[in-house]
Every structure is written in structure tokens, then in C-alpha cells.
Write a structure and sequence with these properties.
By secondary structure, the protein is α+β, with helices and mostly antiparallel strands. It has 9 helices and 5 strands, in the order H-E-E-E-E-E-H-H-H-H-H-H-H-H.
Length: 377
């Protein structure tokens, strides 16, 4: 007796869920007990005592507080595994480079030699072991994608992993070979990112082809316009101080960043436009080209403002800590903005140009493939 197709699908789904939960439990257990794989000593905090609090103020009247914390921890690896170690932690309320540790935190430490023969192990704190927290956030992301996107969510995860591997390989290639042109490498990456992302998630169909063509055209045209504007303005107003430690041409690195940075927004717009256009056609195959074009333009106008705003917020938010730091230390507003926002604004504007251009490009490429679909009906 053969099992029916619906029953098979349910069985496969149950097996997939079981394997997913099994992977989750196994990974959490592994990361929670992997101290022996590290060469550096790791200690788990078992007791903390706040010993001292000192108020401080700088020349710009910025107030802060310094705290001294005595920590008792147990070593989790190495020859002294299981022994207690006593640590001192000094941190501030701003918690810029340090923060308060609590019971259960695992710390990378450096063990000091017992020169006074006290019999007690002491040491200094180097860093926090964060792999457990990173793993939990990653699993929340995975579960959210799978619950909302189901099959497409799974392919989204796969495409993200593949794209990350491609980018890692490309950067490694550029770092190891000084004669490699980073813009060419970025261009190849853009093509691969586009193909992997759209084909894995949407499959091989007219909608995917339209979105891929629009994405590639929109991204490359955006880069050309940005390059032309920077050339005619001699890059005045752009501050490259944050790239001053690079041993490679920072102009090329910045342009490569513009290239790949614009891709995300352009791809989002192109697949949104293509999906909307094909959805309109699937709902009413007799819809006229004029009505299809009008509807597509209305959709494009609705998403144009939100996507450009998203680009602005995404690029600017990373500079907020530096803006606050400059302003708190009495730097002028003009200097603060020019030092920290010139490159970010350039990236946002370049991405915005790509978004605006991609809307009509996506509209007409989608209409071309829809016409082909009509002919082949």
C-alpha cells in the first residue's frame, strides 16, 4: 500500500522540522561547552562585587562615572580548569570600551603569575566570549525567515550563505593579489549576487529574468553616474580620513563600496516591481499595456520614497556614535558633518539614484517579458 502524496509531504515536513530542532539543540549545546577548543583561557563569572564608584568630568563638562568591580570566576579550560580566579574590572557608565560583567558571563582572560605565593590565581580580562549570543541571534533570524517565508525563506538563507562565501572569496583574492582590479571583482560579484539571490528565491522564469536585467542595468548605470559626478567635481567635499590606514587606493575601495552598496536597494526595487507587474498580468491576462504601465508607475512612485529613506537611515545610523563624540568634544557642526557624513551621504545618494532609475527600467523590462508571455500563450 502506497502512501498518498499529502501524507508524504506532511512526513517530509515533520522530518525537516525535527532535523532543524535537532541542529538548534546540538549547536546550542556545542557552543555552550566548546571552551576546550580555545587556546586562550576562558573563565565563567560566578560572583561579582561592586567595590568603588568615582564620578569624573572632562574639560568639556562631560560627566561620567567609573566603577571598580571585583570578580570571582572559574576556569573552564587549560591546565588550571576548575580552579577559581580573581579578576578586577574597571568600567564606566558610558560603556564605550568596557562594561559591567554579570554572573554567567564567560570571559577571555590572561592569567598572571603568582609572584607573591598567595595560592590564588589572578588575571586580567581581555574580552567577552560572545559566540553563544551570536548563535542565538542567528537562530532567531533563521526561524523567523522559515516561519514567514517557508520554502522561500529556506532559499533566502541558502542565497545569503552563498553570497557571503562569494564576497569572502572576492575580498581574499583582492587582499592577496595587489594587481587585481577591485572594481572588476566587484562587478563580477554583483552579477553573481544578482543571479544567486533571484534564481534561488524565485526560480527560472520571466519574472526572475526581468528582475535580473533591471538590477544589473540599474546598478551599473548608478555606478557610472556616480563616477561621472565625482570626476567633474574632483571629489570635492568627500573626506577619506576613515580610509587613511588602507594600503590600497582608497578611491577604488570607495567606488567598490558604492557599487555593492547600491545593489541591495536596486535588487529590492527590481524584484518588487517585477513581482507587482506579473501579479497584475496573472490576475487579468487581458489587461492593456497602457493600464499595466500606469499601474506600474503608481507602484514605483509609492516605493521610491520609502526605499530612498531606508538608504539614508541605513547609511547614516552607523555614524551616529561618531557624530555624538565630535559634538560632545566641542567640534563645530560643519566639521562634524563633513568628517563623518560625506562618504555616507555619497553612498546614500548613489543608491538613491540607482533606485529611481531602476523603477522605469524594471517597468519596461517587465513589460517586454510580459509581452513575450502573451505571445507564447
Amino acid at each position: 500500500m502506497f502512501t498518498s502524496t499529502p501524507t508524504k509531504k506532511i512526513t517530509i515536513r515533520i522530518i525537516c522540522y525535527f532535523l532543524l530542532v535537532l541542529c538548534f539543540v546540538a549547536s546550542v549545546f556545542f557552543v555552550g561547552h566548546n571552551e576546550s577548543l580555545y587556546e586562550r583561557p576562558i573563565a565563567e563569572v560566578t560572583k561579582t562585587v561592586l567595590e568603588d564608584t568615582t564620578p569624573v568630568s572632562d574639560m568639556y563638562s562631560n560627566d561620567d562615572q567609573l566603577f571598580t568591580q571585583r570578580i570571582t570566576a572559574v576556569l573552564k579550560n587549560g591546565e588550571a580548569k576548575g580552579q577559581l580566579i580573581y579578576l578586577t574590572n574597571e568600567y564606566s557608565s558610558s560603556a564605550a570600551f568596557d562594561h559591567e560583567y554579570k554572573v554567567g558571563n564567560k570571559l577571555f582572560i590572561s592569567i598572571k603569575a603568582d609572584t607573591k605565593n598567595t595560592g590564588q590565581l589572578t588575571g586580567t580580562i581581555i574580552d567577552v566570549k560572545r559566540d553563544y549570543y551570536v548563535l542565538m541571534v542567528a537562530w532567531i533570524f533563521i526561524f523567523t525567515l522559515l516561519i514567514v517565508g517557508k520554502r522561500k525563506g529556506l532559499f533566502s538563507i541558502i542565497s545569503l550563505i552563498v553570497n557571503a562565501l562569494i564576497l569572502s572569496f572576492a575580498l581574499d583574492l583582492y587582499v592577496k593579489h595587489s594587481n587585481v582590479n577591485l572594481l572588476i571583482v566587484s562587478g563580477v560579484c554583483v552579477l553573481l549576487f544578482t543571479g544567486v539571490s533571484l534564481i534561488l528565491i524565485n526560480g527560472l522564469n520571466e519574472k526572475t529574468y526581468a528582475a535580473m536585467l533591471a538590477t544589473i542595468l540599474g546598478t551599473f548605470i548608478s555606478l557610472l553616474i556616480s563616477f561621472f559626478v565625482m570626476w567633474i567635481t574632483s571629489e570635492k567635499g568627500l573626506r577619506y580620513e576613515e580610509m587613511q590606514f588602507l594600503t590600497r587606493p582608497y578611491h577604488m575601495v570607495f567606488m567598490a563600496g558604492l557599487f555593492i552598496g547600491a545593489l541591495g536597494a536596486v535588487m529590492d526595487v527590481s524584484i518588487t516591481m517585477a513581482s507587482s507587474m506579473f501579479a497584475l498580468y496573472d490576475q487579468d491576462p487581458t489587461i492593456s499595456d497602457k493600464a499595466l504601465k500606469t499601474s506600474g508607475l503608481d507602484i514605483g512612485k509609492d516605493i521610491m520614497g520609502t526605499i530612498t529613506s531606508i538608504l539614508f537611515f541605513v547609511y547614516i545610523c552607523g555614524s551616529i556614535p561618531m557624530l555624538i563624540l565630535y559634538l560632545k568634544n566641542s567640534s563645530t557642526l560643519g566639521l562634524t558633518l563633513s568628517m563623518n557624513l560625506s562618504l555616507e551621504l555619497a553612498r546614500a545618494l548613489s543608491g538613491g539614484i540607482g533606485v529611481v532609475l531602476t523603477i522605469p527600467i524594471s517597468l519596461y523590462t517587465s513589460m517586454i517579458f510580459i509581452k513575450r508571455k502573451r505571445v507564447n500563450r
